[in-house]
Amino acid sequence: MKRVLTATVLIAVVFALVVYGQLWMITLAAALIAVLAALEYRQLANANASGGIPLWWMMLGIVVLFIVTFHLPGETLPIISALGLILFIRCGFRSPLDRVLPVTAAGVFGLLYIGYPFTLLPMLWMREDGTALLIFLMVAVWSGDIAALYVGRAFGKKKLAPRLSPGKTWVGSVASICASVLAVYAILALDILLTRRGSTLLHISGPIWITLILAAILNVAAQLGDLLESALKRAAGVKDSGNLLPGHGGILDRIDALLFAAPVLWFALLLKDAFGSGRF
């Protein structure tokens, strides 16, 4: 019951923010979530041989990334490079020499793994049809996650990746892809009804079949994100990344799928722009 209640509240808040929020609200919310997730990531990293990421650097890195995203969208990667050099310098002079590379690598990876993907959320929102894009992303990821949990638990037998996550099954994985495609199809059908009434809230131009294929691709990316976050937790010897969300574990446990799916969607849009295939 805690899991369902927490999920309901979170989904309602996120959708209200996406539909009614402004850029600074989207950016601030994404930054707050990224900071909390980065704290959990730092604990995971510091629990194994890659430990030692300075708290001040991790927090500074996430905050700076979002400040740059708000004022200079699209210029985050040079900032990650600069922040990485700062951490390298700090580790080079203060850390044991055998820890310089592991700590620097773990810190920079944290920015690439958590910070950069979440800076893409306000950038997606700023695009034409940005509200529809974020809703499309959330629906594709979350519907698949729900189906994988309940269908896999009820019918799954053959394990998907037992070394990483013993609870995930092939049946749950297939159900997850199907649920994402069906949920996005429902969004497209709802868009047709809303468009007839003069609302473009969910408007996504382009062939339906391409949108559905992209939904399946985003789902696969989301499942990879979930599995690989499990690898981090297993390396640290913990079940959850934290306990901030009742029934769900930590923040990182809830956003791991988005951390992979958001960059995949962004890359798809870049390809669309590069080949001039029109609006998404």
Describe this structure in words.
The protein has two domains: 21-126, no CATH class; 128-280, no CATH class. A hairpin with a 3-residue loop joins strand 1 (159-161) and strand 2 (165-169). The chain has helices spanning 2-20, 23-46, 55-71, 76-94, 100-126, 130-155, 170-196, 208-236, 251-274; strands at residues 159-161, 165-169. The mean pLDDT is 88. It has 280 residues and is mainly alpha-helical. It is globular. The protein has a two-stranded antiparallel ribbon with strand order 1-2.
What does the secondary structure layout of this molecule look like, with pairings?
Elements: H1 2-20, H2 23-46, H3 55-71, H4 76-94, H5 100-126, H6 130-155, E1 159-161, E2 165-169, H7 170-196, H8 208-236, H9 251-274
Antiparallel strand pairs: 1-2
Task: Please mark out the parts with pLDDT under 50 across 5 or more consecutive residues, or reply none.
Answer: none
What is the CA–CA distance across the termini? 38 Å
Per DSSP, the total helix count is 9
Mean pLDDT: 88
Structural class: mainly alpha
List keywords for this structure.
280 residues; two-stranded antiparallel ribbon; 9 helices; mainly alpha
Task: Give a short summary of the structure.
By secondary structure, this protein is mainly alpha-helical. The protein is built from nine helices and two strands.
